[in-house]
Amino acid sequence: CAGNGICKCRVCECFPNFTGSACDCSLDTSPCMASNGQICNGRGTCECGTCNCTDPKFQGPTCEMCQTCLGVCAEHKDCVQCRAFDKGEKKETCSQECMHFNMTRVESRDKLPQPGQPDPLSHCKEKDVDDCWFYFTYSVNSNGEANVHVVE
Q1: Most buried of 5, 8, 119, 127 (most Cβ within 10 A)?
Q2: CA triplet 43, 48, 52: central angle to 5 degrees?
Q3: Helices and strands in the chain: count of H runs, count of E runs
Q4: CB of 152 within 8 A of CB of 105?
């Protein structure tokens, strides 16, 4: 019974938190807990203490790895561009699609928030529609609010 139960009449009687014919399936979900506090990152099911990722893009022990996903910078580039500079692919739909973050303008790159603050922070350098570089940071605070700082 895998050390997780008692064999009675050739049938395993499992201890609490174990199941299966050989008591080899743990019901403990803690190994499936992703860094965001969700079981299997909300993209899979926890079976015997292991994530079975149901979203094919996501892999890994807690379904958090995504090789084909856009990074934070590329994902928010178009919205930052239209909110800060009124141009880019989302210029016409900006007010509908791009109001999901708080935006602060700063004068220069050295005025951007720096690593070391409590919220996870991404520093971004992206090209705009005119082939010019623009710089911004993207962070999410403990209340789940997204904050963007963009260089004027």
Answers
A1: 5
A2: 25
A3: 2, 12
A4: yes
